[in-house]
Amino acid sequence: MLSGLVGWPLLAMVGVWCCPAAWVRRVALAGGAALLLWTGWVLAQFDVQTAGWQMGEQVPWLGMLGLNYALAVDGLSAPLLGLNSLVLLLVLASEPPVVRPRLYYSLVLLTGAAVAGAFLAQNVLLFFLFYDLELLPLYLLIAVWGGARRDYAAIKFLVYTAISGLLLLAAFFGWAVLSGAGGFDYEALRTQTLGLGAQVGLLVLLLLGLGIKIPLVPLHTWLPDAHVEASTPVSMLLAGVLLKLGTYGLVRFGVQGLPQGWRVLAPFLAGWAVVSVLYGSLMAIGQQDMKRVVAYSSIGHMGYVLLAAAAATPVALVASVAQMVSHGLISALLFALVGVVYRVTGTRDLTQLQGLLAPERGLPLVGSLMILAVMASSGIPGMVGFVSEFMVFRGSWPVFPVWTLLAMVGTGLTSVYFLLLVNRAFFGRLTPALANLPAVSWGQRLPAIVLAMLVVALGWQPAWLVRWSEATVTTWGWR
Amino acid sequence: MKAATAVATIKERLLQGGALLPDTPENVVEVVAILKSYGVVLGYYWENLIYMSQTQFLVLFPFFKYFNGEINWRKLLRHWNHDRINYEFAEYCMRAMLWHGSPPLDRYLDSPEFAQLAERAIQAKIRGNFLLQLLHGFFPEFLPEQVKMMVYTSVLGQFWRVMSPLFLDLWERYQRGEIHTIKDVVDHIRAGLVQAAPQPITYGVKIRGEFYPLVPETAGLDFLTAAAVPYVEAVFFRSFPFMGTVSYNAQAYQIPADQADFTYGALYADPLPIGGAGIPPTLLMQDMRHYLPAELRQRYQQTPRGLGDVRVKICESFQKSMFCVTTAAIQALAPYPLTSTDPQERRANEAYLDQWLQRLRDSRLLAIQG
Questions:
Q1: What is the dihedral of CA A108, A207, A276, A143, to 10 degrees?
Q2: What does the angle CA A378 – CA A384 – CA A388 come to, to the nearest 5 degrees?
């Protein structure tokens, strides 16, 4: 059953290469839709009351290397699988590529399969393989369909992520050797006793490796460049799903896998999280490119996940998962809207954009959704951003009150940079230069509308978001 | 410098008998077609204004004033659904005229003669109505102000009763192949205005079968000075800042007479509305949208947004047409025929045009030069 989550996108990929040229997009969309339906079916079978792994599948693969094809789902991975399938379908439904559609859709589908595989992997080596598998397609997605400086951005992404992968590999090998587990099966590794020093050492490697992916300051510099040069759907994929591999890895291998070491490092991690939050927010204030604003905002908001994971109270751990999903939805929405603005106006420069909310000749619906998205990102009640951020602060406050207070300042700064963005680009008088914008089709609006509806729906009914992980992750905390 | 050159070009064009709007085939069809739809809408407006002035006289709660006497559920639902003619626009224009005033009309409305006639009509109306008698007793200036408003309602109705067929006739002449240039358009409008100029403006109401004159013919008010010129002044040059952006007490004569204080009228309206001050007459655009000739609709459809921003496009076309009406007014009020070659007359005309162009400096005149 779980293999379907990896298999559907791969099957669609084959279909994309075999079908007539005119059917490529439809086949890819069908594959994305099938994956989403399959995910829905898996989640329907998932027992939210049960803590621990469910629906496990295991096939011996390379026994001598300790590598098994082992998949399972738990409360941490279930909501992220849903997020991955949803964002993947919306990415496929977004603006089609101008050139090489077969290759483009194949790479997007491959990325989706790799991410699902990483969330499901029960073997750390298998996790690493899936983690690294998405590297190449994403590199190509930026390098082939990116903007003017796509080569630079793609190479930078490749180098950073490759280093991230090497650090992870080193950590997993170290874990396997030091624990004496005799393989890479996660449960075997996790249940072995490991000295505190070894745990801290492994965690440092993991933090550096996953910190690049999240990304945490100062390991973040690849992200703004990648976002700016990537096309809109790729940015949605990157912010919506791929960054979550980093935070997923931290919670999975750090909080659950190496809890004693995590406990020692937690105060430092909370501080690091706040630095990321404040740095990302302050940098966002100074940007003139809409996409850079959202990219730095992403860096800031991923810091909240680390803060919650560091606190590791039951509420904080649920919050960390909620914040991953919340950020995935909101950032994908923001990038989708920035993409529409760029496609229609030909610019993302906030010094050139003005008055886009104008009712007749502007982009009123896009502008309205953008206001909704920035409100959600700023943690305004009634939307999913409020739920996750409030839970992060509520869960972290008893453990790190000072860091939590400082992180709250980041929420205020979010309002500042997003109000600046909305005020510059959407309010005021539409300039004559923007007076003859082409109309935005419903196809272009659809991904943003779907995401906006989810952002509001989960804001009103947070139980739909947190019910998946409550039973599982609350057993991992030690506070 | 660029603006100065453009203004000089416009002035030269006017002196050669041309118009404020450049003469191009595209402009001709755009202006003629938009004036056709304007003519249709004005037809609805004047009928309602005349209806209100005659049947809603001193009705303090005129809930059904836009229904022209035909009240049924279907019409009520349509009214609430806004799938109808927005008569509110006509009322806004009337109020703009009331607030800014029509000098000859206001002189008469402030005269003892009018006060006497108004009081007579008021007494006839409030006879047997205790509440209105009480109101009039406590606030003796209230009902006369309402009567003045009814006078303006009728005056605007009478003005548009002339203009509506004038624009519809222009469209018919265009279809018969009699209109080819912007000059033809201006000539048609000017001829219509000149013909209607001496037409008397009168008003009176029937109360319980008896007729009560309020603006008799002896008041000496005519179409041009009491209705047309004040309308152009109020609506083209001054109106539409009153939608909550500027607050004056018109009854207390607080509205400045200086034209420089008002650059919000139809000629100044921003076709890229954001809902702030200087909004274009959106209700009018909404109404005209229903009556666009196929030629103009097709032209609009060929643009990037098609009919998605049709109201903005109507606003732009409407402004062009209003510059034609303004040209007709400029020509009609010029000290000498503008094409005169007599040096002295030409100098006088140039000075006259300089004043007009100075007045239109902040309008969208340069924006429509193509």
A1: -30
A2: 80
Angle at Cα B203 formed by Cα B198 and Cα B205, nearest 5°? 160
* pLDDT per position as a tens digit, A469-479: 999 888 887 66
**Beta carbons of B186 and B328 less than 8 angstroms apart:** yes
pLDDT in tens, B184-234: 999 999 999 999 999 999 999 999 999 999 999 999 999 999 999 899 888
Sorted by where each begins, the domain ranges of chain A are: 3-473
A371/chain B closest Cα distance in angstroms: 16
Query: Which residues have a Cβ under 8 Å from the Cβ of B123 and sit 6 or more positions away?
Result: none
With CB atoms and an 8 Å threshold, state whether B274 touches A436. Answer: no
Pairing of strands B203-207, A67-73: unpaired
Contact A77, A21 (CB under 8 A): no
Indicate the residue of A355, A432, A438 with minimum beta-carbon distance to B274: A355
Q: Given this model, what pLDDT does residue B263 score?
A: 67
- Reported in sequence order, the residue ranges of B48-152 that DSSP labels E, i.e. its strands, are none
DSSP string, A113-143: HHHHHHHHBSBHHHHHHHHHHTHHHHHHHHH
Q: Would the pTM of this model clear 0.90, i.e. be above it?
A: no
Between CA A389 and CA A403 the distance in angstroms is 14
Distance from C-alpha of A96 to C-alpha of A234, rounded to nearest angstrom: 11
Residues A276, A403 contacting (CB under 8 angstroms): no
CA contacts within 13 A on the Cβ side of B76: 5
Domain locations along chain B: 2-99+154-198+224-369
The radius of gyration computed from the CA coordinates of chain B, to the nearest angstrom, equals: 22
Which tokens sit at B14?
């006017």
C-alpha triplet B149, B152, B158: angle, nearest 5°: 145
Interface contact B308-A429, CB threshold 8 A: no
Residue of chain A with shortest Cα separation from B279 = A429
Runs of H (alpha helix) within A286-379? 290-311, 314-345, 364-377
pLDDT at position B277 = 40
B136 interfacial to chain A (CB closer than 8 Å):
no
Percentages (nearest 5) of helix, strand, coil residues in chain A: 75, 5, 20
Please give the radius of gyration of chain A, using alpha carbons only, rounded to the nearest integer.
21
Tokens of B214: 């309020």
Pairing of strands B210-215, A67-73: unpaired
Residue A185 β-bridge partners: A123
Residue position matching structure tokens 């940098």: A283
Say if CB A169 and CB A234 are below 8 A apart. no
- Six token digits for residue B96: 């703009």
Contact A358 B306 (CB under 8 A): no
pLDDT at position B278 over 50: no
Return the number of other C-beta atoms located less than 10 Å from residue A364's C-beta.
15
For residue B250, the 8-state DSSP code is G
Task: Say which amino acid occupies A16.
Answer: V
The first and second tokens of residue A168, run together, are: 């992870």
Q: Cα–Cα distance between A22 and A29 in angstroms, integer?
A: 13
Could you please report the per-residue DSSP string of A43-74?
A: HHH--TT--S-EEEEEEEEEGGGTEEEEEEE-
Which residues fall within 8 angstroms of residue A332, CB to CB, at 6 or more apart? A87, A90, A236, A239, A240, A447, A451
Considering chain B, what is the average pLDDT of its residues?
89
Q: What is the DSSP letter of A348?
A: -
- CB-CB neighbours of A149 under 10 Å: 12
Q: Is B301 on the interface with A (CB under 8 A)?
A: no
Residue B207, beta-bridge partner list: B210
Lookup: tokens for B272: 């890229």
Three-state SS at A349: strand
Which pair of tokens denotes residue B257? Answer: 């007479």
Residues 264-283 (B) with a CB less than 8 A from some CB of A:
270, 272-276
| Distance of alpha carbon A122 from alpha carbon A56, whole angstroms | 9
